Amino acid sequence: MEFFKKTPRIPFMGKRAWCYGFSTFLMVATLVLLVTRGLNFGIDFTGGVVLELAYPDTADLDKARAAVSEAGFPEAQIQNFGTSRDILVRVLPREGEDVVQIATEITDALRAAQAGIELRRTEVVGPQVGEELTEQGGLAMLFTFILILIYIGFRFEKKMGVSAVIAAIHDPIVILGFFALTQMQFDLSVLAAILAVIGYSINDTVVVFDRVREVFVASRKKTSAEMIDSAVNETLSRTVMTSVATLIVVAALFIFGGEALKGFSAAILVGVVIGTYSSIFVAGALALDMKLKPTDLMPPVRDDKELDAIP
Q: Is the pTM of this model over 0.85?
């Protein structure tokens, strides 16, 4: 199945200066947002208490916020969770306070304000656990890139391998910028989504580079830029169709999956878009600017004299 009736002839490599500028803008904007606003870390990383409660009727969020604030927790975040009858209360930890006691006080305050409230879930994460999860999450990202670099190094020529890894690093940074901008909660599910996006982006890049290798071996009269353009255009239908199909599924998850999956599905949505962009515009352009040539992909020439000298 083809997305385009004819293989397009889009000069991607001729537009790489614009792509570098756009990517640089995204990266700088992300760094600025991370420094000025930071990420809205979830309880997985910060520690604290999360309560899920069900109301007999539509929950009055303003009333709930007032009750929790009067109980001594004005910084508590309260929002609908799934339906208008369910709410999620998130309280960050305080030094020297028992998180179990915090959960009890918040529940009692809400029940005093309105009868019939049912406590469905209590999740408590200590600060030490949050710090460990933060460290482990960072290590997971680091080892992911190391293993990808090893895999790409064996699979492709080193210039293509470095290009693929740089393009893959580009994607999670942009996702972090999105979460810093929107202040959506950043938890373990979002970290899992980022790791999935890295794999998705690398897979797209591998498909493009496989075709680049085939074109470089088959064509000798074109320039490197023309051959990379040809490879990207020949795989464009597959890339676009895969991305569109994935976006449809994840968009449905974002809309209908409830509050618990909002962050995960948002990260995948942003990641698929930016990953498709990087595999089309960034990876090949970096390989070209690293002076990738057909001779780099040729098998080493055997020295017949050395072979004749072997007894």
A: no
